[in-house]
Structures are given as structure tokens and as C-alpha cells.
């Protein structure tokens, strides 16, 4: 019998009120406790989740998400939160003095609001590089906060040309945004190259990288590339359940925030309220503004630990994602599939946007794969939604090769094609 | 060996690439899998968490929070989300046509932003009834969105008088806010009575109840009392981990939203983006705006099920919280403790704000209780922070009497007093 069971049982026997009718029940319950949960937790059987996030989670991450009730200001929890902030800096190569990480209950989408609310003032200009659905939505968000937005929109599957970007920078906008991986197209923007263009043509422009589907699956060099904001979420490359907005701001971004002339529009997302909290947890002295998602922070901590201190270095991790991506894309190409990104060089490494072969539609593939316990995602980009589907290959699906996830996906697709009885030729 | 282990192992043996080096490892790992996680999960031994939230969570709730990776738009998940919205209506007695529930990744605090962003326009008037820290902060939030706020502040431990409230209503403000339980004082506002005052003196005024620390521990009759908004969070009476902003809006509140003249300031919190999502999930047809915290929704579902379909009715649940509160307060009074609320009639049933007896301070009690594995909370209200501490008694600590939590707390406090060697007399 475990210690908690013994404690409960002996307490129950000791106490003299509030219990008589329950002794029998608690005894029975305690006797069924045979092990400590966190040591031997194994998740339930389930369909393989290979959409571009949420992804598959490891047993230790899910066990951490089941951490018992814990005070958000307890000495036990404070260093866990602090470690997460420190490990996030490692994952992003964002170790410069003055970088400020934020972990706030919310979603990836909420990161756009953080940028818009804290860095933009009424009428400020932003250039949004649009490589799909998520670029368009980021622009909507900036406009909702009163920014004047110039959209530089690539053709579907492509990225904006250097000429387009340089032209948009002529007005010296306050902000330029890049969607690192737009999951609606599977396009990977050449972020390092774009930042070098900005630094050459409009060095005062802040650069925000929407890396919701890129952090910990694509290389991001925050300090080296001169990024000012990276936005992410937990449920993709970071390998923890959804529910946290993850953000890194540069010293320059924080200076821009601190020298605002207009007040921030909003309260929950106002960095003024969060700076003391994040700095408090990082220093080991928890402070209260709003209750953090304690269990999810434990889960993120477990995942970040495995990313930063696991058997592979970060460089090896990014290389593993590249290899997995090439393996998936090469295998699918051999089967007759095409891809949404116009060129392999601008295709994400953590996901693949796959065009249906001629004569096939979503109904011929997605439900058949689900019957084989493989969950991929339908198309999202309105212009081509019915023409393609999306496969995620991030996190343990890539790094824990013993799981065999990639072959399970590819074998599943191959079987579905075979069972269709149709012949396959490239679209 | 469990089914998942067998599946994995047999898949591993079948597949022909991406695995050779891993067979040994996966075999070893699979052999250690001895059971299905969700059937037999028991949380790890831990200190008893009895702060005014987060609270203790049941094993099934934590197991649900460890649900494997699941798509937010899957046919498995959609009815879970929909059920949560329906059960929330039950818990709040909010069954009228047109009521709109929202479950959005965030915190309780974020509920204030939802009210301010969606219901208020620049210059709109709000009356904030202030019974502690949380009333003051709600006012700050409303002002951040451009509202003109009149604060009706009670003395510490008290509630505003009817005269104060009626006077504040003379200007027919657009909104009046009530903190149902202000956890900084343990004061329970007489919400039903206050709403009757509003309906008599300014019926056009919308009424928002901040019930973060009240939903599912204090009776709330949304329809009968004529409430327009109830704000809550998951980690208190609702018995699930933190990370969700829980909100119910009346038909009248939604009409106010739909007839706004100015655009909503913000994007993530704009109800326009969420209405189709909530209505989609409620109808069983998931839609995407931002990824919901899937695991936490499963946890909330488990907790709401036990609240709405458990052995006790909702009425009995509220009665259990009243009895537990009386038991704690009576026992502490006998030990020589006083309370922050000036009158038992305005003392919360889900928590107790306890004054230290003469000659005792925080250091004499809180760390000693922690050594006995009992975690209570320090004072929060600035004016009296060093004079009191706070005990939470919500959820399974109250309803699962077999746990013996209340006696554990009371015995712990009694032992701490005894071990201090000091004599105790009322402050």
C-alpha cells in the first residue's frame, strides 16, 4: 500500500468526527492504491495524434500535468516556474541580458494580442508578411488595437520576395511580423534572411516572429538574428498540453514598451502587471497577479527538461526534425503526393502540407486514416482547403524513434491508397 | 501487459524502417507497462492544499488532466467541450434561452477583461462594489478599458450599505459589479439582495458577479437573480486545475455586446471571435479560433460531472459547504480565533479569513502548519495583511468527508497552538 493510502487510513482511524460513515469506503479505496502515480504513469491507449499541434505527449509530461493541487506561490512551485523561464531562453538562444520571457495562461493566439497591446500605439505602422491563414489573422489582431497594417502577401505556398519586403520597409514601420511556420500552408519563412533585410533597410523596425508552430522544431536564434519578439504556445514543438501563451521579448522591445506614450489598452495582457511576476518567479520569489496554470507549468517543465537536458543537443534536435521531415516528404513524393509549399527549401520541418493526388479528396483519406487510429488535419487555407491535408511531425513523434510514429503514418497512408483500389498519379 | 504496450511492441516488430536501434529499448519499456493509466490513477502524496484556490483535486480529475494528446476539433473532444458548457448552465441555474457561456484559456482575472472589453465603451459608467483586493483590481481593469468607475468601498470585513449602493445607482450606470466572495477578506456579498436593489433603482444597469471563488461553493441563481455576467475560474469550487476563464453572459448582456457602437478593444477576448466557437462546440460541431486547453477541458468535464450528477444535489452541495464553513468557524472561535468578516452572515462558505490570536503572527502559524503538511494562505488585503490568514474549504475537501480534511486542518492548528507554549485569547 502506498504512503498516501496509509496516511489517509491512519488519519481516518485517528480522527473522531466527520467520518464514521466513510471509513469503510476509504478503506476499500485505499486498499486499491498499489503504486505511486508519478513513478509509473502510462497514458491510455489512443489514436496517434499527428496534426500540426497539439502533438503526442510523453508519459512523464502527462504525469506532470496530473500533479496534485499545489499552491501557485509555494516554495515547491516557484523554482519550477523559474526553471521554465530559464529553459525557454536556452531553447531560443535568447541568453542576452534584458530579454524578458513571459508565460501567461492563454493560447498561442493570445501572443498576437500581447504584441499588439504592449508594443503598438494608435496609428503605429506594422508590416505583416503573410504566408497563410495565421499571417492574415495576426494582421486582424494588430488592426483591432489600432495599428495601421501593410500586408505583404505571398502567393499560396510561397514567401514574399525580397523586393516586396524592402519596398514595405520604405515607410520605416514600427513593427514587422513574420509567421515562421504558417500551419495553413506548411511554409517555413526564411526568418534569418528576412531579419537581415530589416536590419539593412529599416533597423529601427521591431521584428516579431510568430513561432507557435516552430519553437523547438525549427532553429530560432533570438539573439543572433536580432529578433524582438518570439511568440509560441506549449502544444507544438514544446511538447506540453495547450493552455499557455509563450513569449520572449528583447531588451529593445521592453524599452519600447516602457517608453509608450499612450496607456496599454487592456489589463490582463498588460506587461506592466506581468513583469514583476515573471521576474519574481525567475528570482525564486513568487508574486501574485493572476493564478498561473500550475499543472501545465509542471508539464512544460518536464518537457523543457527533456529538450534542454535530454540525450540530444538542441542542434541535434533540429537536425532530427529536418531528417524526419525529409523522410516523410520523400516517402510521400514516391507515393505520388505533391505539396503546398512551392519549394522544399521553404517547407516546414515540423509538419507537411500534402496535396491529394488526382482523383482523391479528403473523404478518401482522412476518415480512412482515422479508422487506422491515425489523426491528421484537414486543409485550413480557404483558397485551397479541399485540396490538401496536414501532417504534424514534431516532438516525441520525431525524437523518440522507437515509437515508430513516422512509419505508422506512412504505412497508414500507403494502405489507404491501396485499399482505395484507385491508381495514384501526381496531382 | 497492457493493450498499448502490446500494440506498440507488435507495431515495432512489424515495421521495417526507423527502428532497428530502438527495439531493445521499447521492449524493455513496454514490459514495464502494467496497467491502463486512467482506470487506476492515484495522485502522488502531497501536502494538503487548503488555500482559497487552487484546491485539492480528485484522482479522476487529475487523470483527466493527463488525457493523451487529442485534437481540439476531433469528434471525441467536441461533446466533452459541449457538455462543459451545458453543465456550467446547470451549476449556475442559468438555463434561460439566450444565456451564453464562455470557456477560454486564461485565468479568473481575464474574466474582468472580458467584461470590460465586450460590454463597456469609452466613457461608460460602472459602479464597483469593493469588499477587498479583488474589487479594487476589477475597478483598475475597467478603467484600463476607458470606463468611468465609481468605487463603493466597504470598511474592511464589511459590505457596502444599501444607502451607499442606492446612491451610486442614481446616475444609472451601465454596469454594476459585485465580488461575490472577495478572497482577500473572506466576505460574502449578499448578491441576491444587491441585485434586487439594482432592479428597483436602476433596472437598465447590467450586473456582473465576480464569482471566481464562489461558483459551485456558494449558491448562485443566475436567472432568478437577474444576473448579466458571472465570472469564474476552474481552480476553486469547480474543482479542476487553473487555466480557464469561465464566464456566463445573459441574453441582455449579449444584446448589449451586439449593439456596441465602438469596436471592441482587443482580439483574443473579443466575443465576436468566440461566439461561433462556443455555439459550435455546444452543437457538437467544433470550430477553430484558438486552441482550447484540451486536457483541462477534460478535467473540468470530470469535475462538473461529479458536481451535477454525483450523489448530492446542487442544493445539498451548497448546504454541505455551509455546514463545513460553520464547523470550521465554530471550531476556530472555540480555539480563540477571530475573523475578518464583521458578521457571520457575510462570511463566505468556501473559505475562512482568520485573525491571529493576540501574541501570534504569521511566522508562528503558517510555517508550522506547512511542517504538518497543511498549506493555508497568508493575508492578502494590504490594510491587514499581517493580521490574518486564509483557509479554503471547497470541493472535495468539503464533499468527500472521508478524506477528513477539515479535521486535519483543525487538529493541525490546535497542535500548532499547543506546541507554541503560549496561551491563547481572542484578539
Automatic annotation (TrEMBL), chains A, B:
GO terms for molecular function: alanine-glyoxylate transaminase activity; L-serine-pyruvate transaminase activity. One of its GO terms (cellular component) is peroxisome. Its cofactor is pyridoxal 5'-phosphate. The keyword Transferase applies. InterPro entries: Aminotrans_V_dom (IPR000192), Aminotrans_V_PyrdxlP_BS (IPR020578), PyrdxlP-dep_Trfase (IPR015424), PyrdxlP-dep_Trfase_major (IPR015421), PyrdxlP-dep_Trfase_small (IPR015422), SP_NH2Trfase/AEP_transaminase (IPR024169). Substrate binds at residue 390. Residues 69-385 form the Aminotransferase class V domain. One of its GO terms (biological process) is glycine biosynthetic process, by transamination of glyoxylate. Coiled coil: none annotated. The modification N6-(pyridoxal phosphate)lysine is found at residue 236. Signal peptide: none annotated. Keywords: Aminotransferase, Pyridoxal phosphate, Transferase. Its EC number is 2.6.1.44. Gene3D superfamilies: Aspartate Aminotransferase, domain 1 (3.90.1150.10), Type I PLP-dependent aspartate aminotransferase-like (Major domain) (3.40.640.10). Pfam families: Aminotran_5. Belongs to the class-V pyridoxal-phosphate-dependent aminotransferase family. This is alanine--glyoxylate transaminase.
